[in-house]
UniProtKB/TrEMBL annotation:
This is GTPase Era. Residues 154-156 are annotated as: G5. It holds the Pfam family KH_2. It comes from Vreelandella subglaciescola. Keywords: Cell membrane, Cytoplasm, GTP-binding, Membrane, Nucleotide-binding, Ribosome biogenesis, RNA-binding, rRNA-binding. Residues 124-127 are annotated as: G4. The lineage of its organism: Bacteria, Pseudomonadati, Pseudomonadota, Gammaproteobacteria, Oceanospirillales. GO terms for cellular component: cytosol; plasma membrane.
Amino acid sequence: MSQTCGFVAIVGRPNVGKSTLMNRILGQKVSITSRRPQTTRHQVMGIKTQDEAQFVYVDTPGMHIMSKDRNKAINRFMNQAAGQALRDVDCVVFIIDRTRWSEEDQAVLKRLEHVTAPVILAVNKVDRLQDKTELLPWLESVGARRDFTAIVPISAKHGTQVDTLEAEVAKHLPESVHYFPEDQITDKSLRFMAAELVREKIMRQLGDELPYQMTVEIEEFREAGRVTHISALILVERQGQKVILIGDRGERIKSIGREARLDIERVLDGKVMLNLWVKVKRGWSDDSRALKSLGYNLD
């Protein structure tokens, strides 16, 4: 039996469950998640090798409509990163949230007009539908919006019908040698993943207070014996945000560090010493040069 291998872009508006789906498919966390929209900022590649087939999933930032509060350089970067993932892919999984169709879903659909690769529609979070009888008529109506290769209702959180979705994707993988070793699950470095896990804990605890004006940069990542020492710099834009992040007597930053360290230890399978620092860097999220220096680069 010949080998197959292909790139699969996972796209959709913010907060529909793209990262949750990829983590479910891979069986472990590669993309960070939170209830806050636009938690994912970079293209993150997740690799699954199963027998003769290798799936190279590309998780993307949520495609969103630029608005007054989402019109910074980092917003433009995220939209460009999501759009770039559509180039030269073998298949696209377009995710929507239950029977909700928004202006941003329509904008994503429009971005897909010129995509020649097969597009599979994944209707996520169906486990949360109050009235299940709404689903079938909705699937029929949404199917009229485009000639989708397949429409699959799923629950990424619980794994419902995710295997069915994978089987549909597998039909579109071209014959090819595998691009990655069988045991590799992502193209991202451990340094990158450590920074993302710190950012995830901040988003989960303080997503409303620090929506987009926060990023994490790893300043030190070194192994000393059986311990990995990591120093992470958290950048915010205002002094007030720094105060919120540190918390009363440093309790908030300690809680974030504790949760992040435990997740990083699971990824590294070893002991971690994690130090967090907070610094105010005004205007970084709307400064293209600053973004590039912080790793927000499409090159």
